[in-house]
Amino acid sequence: MDSGKQLTGTLAVAVFTAALGSLQYGYSLGVINAPQKVIENNYARALGVWSERAAVLSENGTAEEGEIPEAGKHPDVIMYWSLSVAIFSIGGMLSSFLVGFVGDLKGRVKGMLMCNVLAIAAGLLMGLCKMWKPHIMVIAGRAVMGFYCGLTSGLVPMYIGEIAPKAYRGALGTLHQLAIVIGILISQVIGLDFVLGNDDMWPLLLGLSGAPAVLQSMLLPLCPESPRYLYIQLGKDKEAKKSLYRLKGQYDATSDLEEMRREKDQADREPRISILSLIRSSVYRKQLFVALMMHLSQQLSGINAIFYYSTAIFARAGVAQPVYATIGVGVINTIFTMVSVALVDKAGRRTLTLVGLGGMCCCAIAMTVGLRFQNDYSWMSYVSMSAIFLFVSFFEIGPGPIPWFIVAELFSQGPRPAAIALAGCCNWTSNFIIGMTFPYIQAWLDCYVFILFAVLLLGFTVFIYFRVPETKGKSFEEIAAVFRKGRKTQAQIPKENTEMQQLKTSTDA
User: Fold this and answer.
1) Cβ density class 108-146: b for 16+ within 10 Å, e for less
2) How many Å apart are CA 283 and CA 492, to the nearest integer?
């Protein structure tokens, strides 16, 4: 039976369980948007800058215009609110460096299990925030949740990439992003004011971000550890074989074990690759540059500007109920990520990324035209709205899901944890920068803000066209050979021999 084509119940359970961590990441990303006004009012009350009388008058609509200042306009409220949003990314930036350490310490499965303590603690901090000072409790909870999400956004693609059969590596790798967008959509729907996004229920809305961790903690003991971790890291060949049989059913595991043996021999001959030595290494420089550029193209495409500020963008485009248009974006997000799951192992990673980035570049230009002329022609608001929906569709076809798992494909077992940690930190840092600077850039460039993203998207498209190889269906050995080719022209022949030796046995994921 062909080991590359095996899909078993155990593999499905393992991938589903791991992806619950990604669902939680998506939920935490999206949950803070819808109830912004409600949370600002609660912060203002807790800080003593907004009286109960003002709250009642504004809710009843009996206040004269301009008589009562909005709670969200107070500088203290603005500061605490901004911190509630931004601290999530700061937590992720810090913990993304620890992905390799946590993954290697106790293994991929126990690593995810250990992290769930953080997620449950964060959920309780936010869910019980009214028992003390809500602004302090929410910021603490968001910081801990960000720290958890930084770890899970590295551990989940690492685990799935290591257990997936080669023929399905792309599709299963894309499930990380699918779970993220489903999480965002769930948070948008239950964040509506008549569900949980209201004055009474908002702590529960935030607290629920710890719920998937409870389910994941119950399912993780049923999941086999990564065979590659067991064999290459721990040298436990019997356990690795048992894990392979659990994941793939009964089949001839000789070729898989032989690949892992060659990779282990190689790893034993090389010193352990830390983040610092990976940055310094000339052997992996090209792969690392490609991995970081893929993650930058995801974050600097402007997609987070749309996710964070979509409600405001739709309101500006003249939509009567912008929050429902934002949920529409979430639905399209989910649908097109499913399209990517179906296409990624047929069309290939490089092709889908190029189509996605090129399409987004055109949409960014169309969005700018729509926003610029919407006051002159009423139908232009439909142009900018259609451009937003298409922009999101193109993002989820390639630039959204692919960077997360392509890093695991570009590197062998030795440098993989360090590479995933670096790429994750790059992703979180650029996410944080966009989140903090977009309102200022928007104020400066006004309706031309997406021209900036169009220029960046064009640059990333050109880079990927010339520098990124196709990894579909290839072993690590074949991928490494593509990156090796370019160095022969650099008159480094003595060094070349050692580099070829180092990379020679980087085998199939």
Assistant:
1) bbebbbebbebbbbbbebbbebeeeebbebbbbbbbbbb
2) 12
Count up the domains in the chain and report the number.
2
Q: Are residues 211 and 135 in the same domain?
A: yes
Q: What is the pLDDT of residue 86?
A: 83
Helix (H) or strand (E) holding 498: helix 493-504
What is the C-alpha to C-alpha distance for residues 289 and 486, in angstroms, rounded to an integer?
14
Residues in Cβ contact with 86 at an 8 Å cutoff, skipping those fewer than 6 apart: 432, 435, 436
pLDDT of 249: 86
- Beta-carbon contacts of 298 under 8 Å, excluding residues fewer than 6 positions away, are 399, 400, 403, 427
Counting as low any pLDDT under 70, the low residues of the chain are 1-6, 50-72, 270-272, 308-309, 312, 476-477, 486-509
CA–CA separation, 379 vs 381, rounded Å?
5
pLDDT at 24: 96
Query: From CA 472, how far away is CA 470, in angstroms rounded?
Result: 6
Q: What does the pLDDT read at residue 71?
A: 65
pLDDT at 433 (0 to 100): 86
Q: How far is CA 353 from CA 356, 357, 389, 464, in A?
A: 5, 6, 18, 8
What domain range is 200 assigned to? 9-51+73-223
- Same domain as 113, residue 21: yes
Which of these, 479, 18, 37, 477, lies nearest to 258 by C-alpha position?
Answer: 477
Who contacts 253 (Cβ-Cβ below 8 Å, separation ≥6)?
Answer: 3, 241, 244, 245
Instruction: Answer whether residue 425 is part of any domain.
Output: yes
Under 8 Å between Cβ of 8 and 163: no
Token digits of residue 141: 């909870």
In this structure, are 180 and 291 located in the same domain?
no
In a domain, 83, yes or no: yes
d(CA 57, CA 227): 62
DSSP 8-state code for residue 237: H
